[in-house]
Amino acid sequence: MMLKKERDVNFLLEKHLDEIKEWLQASSEALSYYLSDDLEKIKYLLLRKNEISSSLEDERQEIWERLCDGAYFPVIRGDLLGIVKSVGRIADAATLSCETFSYLQPEIPIKIKNQLATIVRLVFFLFRPIHENVLYYLRGDDVLKVIRENVAAFLVKRAEVKVLTGNLKNQIYSSDLDHWQKSHLNDCMQSISTISSQAVETNDQIQLIMVKIVS
Question: Where are the domains of the chain?
Fold first, then answer.
């Protein structure tokens, strides 16, 4: 039976995950609006960056303090802290990507815009199975079955992102765009790839946890 301290930590974790999910959705929308030539959404999002970052950091600190205060004692839940930090890095990468687009404001040909919009959508979709996995892990609901299914779904989408990103990079560098345009587009592409890489790191952590549960 879960004690009140454990329930409180789980509640804080779920709240933290929901806020990160909302921030990632806002970041995805901001980038999509940018690719539709609307810069206002991304500017508004970046104006809220400090406020949101401060709120997420306060939540991480509170989770840490609750764990130090005896939640799950005598077990040290390094797995929960690892997930919190790893998921936070996905949000940080999304913010950095928005900043990169806003700062560089690359000129993007329409054909590349459409492909980039698809990659953005798929990259942010990667958080969905991660979010579900963590919730199931916290609640203990058919955890192994669900995590296996979500990890498989994640890997399929990640492979799709990797292929599309590689193809688009090749297309950009073989185009007749100016060097500075190619450079700016590459920086923006790299910022999106960083979101994907951080999602992969979190997914790897969840797979490791799954192995420990089985053993």
Answer: 4-214
